[in-house]
Structure formats: C-alpha cells, structure tokens
Amino acid sequence: MKADPAVQRRLLDLAEVDAELSRADHRRRTMPELAEITEAEKAVQTRRDAQVAIQTQLDDLDREVARQEKEIDAVRAREERDRGLMAGGTIGAKQLTDLEHELATLERRQGVLEDDLLELMERREAVEMDGKHAGVELAKAEEKLADAVRRRDENLTDIGTTEARRAADRAKVLAGMPEDLLAVYERRRKQKGIGAALLRARRCGACRIELDRREISRIKETPADEVLECEECGAILVRTAESGL
Ligand SMILES: [Zn+2]
Question: Which tens digit of pLDDT belongs to each residue from 187-245?
C-alpha cells in the first residue's frame, strides 16, 4: 500500500491520541477508587447490619422491662390490698397470720423482681452504648464511602474531559486520511493495541524490538511512500529523520 510520507506521519499523531484514549479508558476501569468503593460499601452494610441487630436487642429488652414493671405493679397492688385488709381490723387471727405470711412472700418476690429489673436496665444501658458506638462507626464508614464516591466522580469528570478533547483531536487528524490506510491502522490497533509507530533508531516504537541489519537495508530500499509494517508486531512503521536509516 502506498501513502504520502506526510500522511504516514499523521498516523503517529493518531496513534498518540489513541494511546491517550486507551489510557483514559484504562483509568476509568481500574482507578483505585472503584475497589475502595466496593470495600466501603461492604463496610457500610456490615455496620448497618450491626445497628439493626442492636436495635432488635433494645426492642427485646424494652419489652422485657415493660413486662417486669407490670409484674412488679401487680405484686405491689396485691401487697397494698393485703395491708389494707390487715389495717381494716375486721379479719380474724388465722387470716391475719395468712396475710402476714403472704405479705412476706410478696415482699421477697418484689425484691427479686426489682433486682431483675435493675439488671435488665443495666443490660439495656450497655446495649445502648453499643448502639451509640455502632452509630459512630456507621457514620465513619458512610463518610469514607462518600469520600471515595466523590473522588471517583471527580476522576470520571476528568477522564470525560480528556476523552472529549482527544476525540476532537482525533477527528482533526482523521480529516482527509485515506480510507485504506486507516483501515489497516484500525485493524492493527484492534489486534495489538497499537496501530502505528515511529521507527526510531532502528527500533519499532510499538514493540520496541530492534530491527536487524537485513530488515533495515530492506526498509532503506523501500520507497518513502510505501507503507511498512513491523515484522514483529504488525504495527505500521512510520519513517522520519529519527529512524536511523
Ligand atoms: Zn513492532
């Protein structure tokens, strides 16, 4: 294939633009913020689960406290009733003894219930502290996630700007480029990632392999408007004064 040497040199501009576009694409897919976000999302979920578990514990304890308080109230009511009867003076000696006995039992029972209630309240307080701690941890994890998301979005904006600029550059370089040359370039780029490269100091700019003497002398004899390809990597080899020919 033949192409004007000046047109061939424009392939180098195109390759440079394409390299920048692939770097932008690579950065979009591999920026560290992506892994950070995945990790941070996991951490937030774990903290949220912990908070839900603590809230469930608190709800259970609240129910237990309410039940305990209700029982204590019932015992107290019974005690008051007994005391009332005893103070009324209308009961016999046998019943009085029974009531005294019952009252003593009720007071013991009340003591036990009150101790249990105190213990429940202490447990509730401890769980509440856990809840506060979990809330702080969750807030920290959410902040970390938000920070990573913000940095990712900044990167995406940055990448988008680069891409828009390079796309405009690309359109300029492509204007008037021969179709057949471009087709070869695109094919090579798809296959190897690099479509065209400068032959610099006898080395292919795409695969960096130094061409041997036989190949160099063959290239020297090839007319300047003949399009060359690297024997090693297939990239279009563009010759300039830097080629070392
Ligand atoms: Zn090569």
Answer: 999 998 999 999 999 999 999 999 999 999 999 999 999 999 999 999 999 999 888 88
Cα 174 to averaged position of ligand 1 atoms, centre (Å): 23
Q: State the distance from the centre of ligand 1 to the C-alpha of 78, rounded, in angstroms.
A: 99
- List the end-to-end C-alpha distance of the chain, in Å, as a whole number: 21
4 CA distance to ligand 1 centroid (A)? 21
Amino acid at 49: D
C-alpha–C-alpha distance, residues 33 and 21, integer Å: 20
Ligand 1: centre distance to CA 175 (Å)? 26
Q: Tell me if residue 179 falls in helix, strand or coil.
A: helix
Q: What is the pTM of this model?
A: 0.76
**12 Cβ contact list (under 8 Å, min separation 6):** 196, 197, 198, 238
Tell me how far CA of residue 168 lies from CA of 11, 196, 235, in angstroms.
16, 19, 24
Helices 32-88 and 93-174: crossing angle in degrees, nearest 10, is 170
Are the CB atoms for 204 and 232 separated by under 8 Å?
yes
Q: Judge whether 189 and 195 are in contact, CB under 8 Å.
A: yes
DSSP state of 4: -
Tokens read off for 56:
């469930």
> Which residue, among 40, 44, 50, has the nearest Cα to 134 in the 3D structure?
50
